[in-house]
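Let us work through a complete example step by step.
Step 1: write down the sequence.
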Amino acid sequence: MDDHDTKNNNSLTSPWYKKGLCFSCKKCGQCCTGFPGFVWLSPKDLSDIANFLQMSQEMVLEKFTRKVFHKISLIEILPSYDCIFFCNNRCSIYPARPVQCRTFPFWPHLLLSKETWDDAARSCPGMQTDENMVPYEEIEKKLQEYQQNFLP
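Step 2: predict the structure and record it as tokens.
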């Protein structure tokens, strides 16, 4: 049995992060570059980005996305694997960034255990800080936002 039931929060035991977790985004861009991956877009993400860029959704799809596994992902710039919106060491659509980006690092697979959290923290300076304790309730809210955006 997992330490935490991430689907419906009906766990018999408290999650390992019940006292909160330290995280303060340093806007370093480490999560936006350096390795291949996918930034999945929901219909709301697409709409938010289109509105922010003052473009049609069709134009955003054509210029900035690709289809992968019947889903929509942002394009990466090769060979660096930078997100298409990672420019001048920052996110050029930060106010309209996708849910996947907004909820990092409070993703289900990173919250499985202290070990998975610590492993991810090796490449994220914001997870290596004691500056900002994120309360359990906020972590759960971000986790729920992520799950509602991606899980059926």
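Step 3: interpret the result. The longest helix spans residues 136-150.
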